[in-house]
Specification:
Mean pLDDT: 85
Radius of gyration: 19 Å
Number of strands: 5
Distance between the termini: 19 Å
Order of helices and strands: HHEHHEHHEEE
Helix content: 25-40%
Strand order of the largest sheet: 1-2-3
Number of helices: 6
Structural class: alpha+beta
């Protein structure tokens, strides 16, 4: 899509927003590569590494536990005994970061621009001419008026880091955004995000998203 000098980012162009909206309408997800300038990406990556190195990221199993699946098997789901390379439901390290967190002051860059993208998809930020976003998508997104803090997470290969298959609708979420900070990712690294077709028990795969650096899902 042609990049207008008046735009801050290439994805703000109406033709790109049309493609994003169409993808949300037909596939229920959209991918935007090179979402941020390299300088912003590097700042975000540095903050994420600092948060992990400083010990602020806690193991997912610590604050989530496994009792959701029943007390009799809770320890199995969270690998309570830290058995090396054993599968567990919440194998990530994570921390929630607010916009005013002085220890990770650049993380706020991401929600600034995801908010901007959402406002354009909702039509709050007007476009030239008619809205390029499908009406059903714009209507659906009108209910998005609150966002959580940014969850910065790390999935470590040596711990078989992963996150159990789930949806976010249980807490009333309408839209989830993921942004990847993986430099030089290779297929042998694994860690793809598998999206399934609708249905809580449906095992039919819709798409496997590669966790490429500077990619927004």
């Amino acid at each position: 899509a042609p990049f207008a000098p008046s735009l801050d980012h290439w994805w703000q162009a109406p033709a790109v927003l049309e493609l994003v909206g169409r993808s949300l309408s037909t596939a229920c997800f959209a991918i935007i590569d090179d979402f941020l300038p390299l300088s912003d990406y590097l700042l975000l990556r540095a903050d994420a590494r600092h948060l992990f190195a400083s010990g602020r990221m806690i193991r997912g199993k610590i604050d989530q536990g496994g009792s959701y699946w029943g007390d009799d098997i809770a320890s199995e789901f969270i690998n309570e005994n830290d058995i090396p390379m054993k599968w567990n439901a919440w194998g990530n390290h994570k921390v929630w970061v607010g916009d005013d967190d002085s220890d990770a002051k650049h993380v706020r860059i991401l929600p600034r621009w995801t908010d901007n993208l959402l406002s354009r998809l909702k039509g709050i930020i007007p476009h030239d001419g008619s809205s390029p976003v499908p009406p059903r998508v714009a209507r659906r997104l009108q209910t998005v008026d609150f966002r959580e803090h940014v969850m910065v997470a790390s999935y470590r290969a040596e711990e078989r880091g992963r996150y159990l298959r789930h949806t976010d609708i249980g807490r009333g979420a309408v839209l989830t955004a993921l942004y990847y900070l993986n430099d030089d990712w290779r297929p042998e690294d694994q860690g793809e995000l598998r999206l399934f077709l609708p249905g809580h028990t449906n095992t039919e795969v819709r798409y496997d998203v590669l966790p490429l650096a500077n990619r927004l899902l």
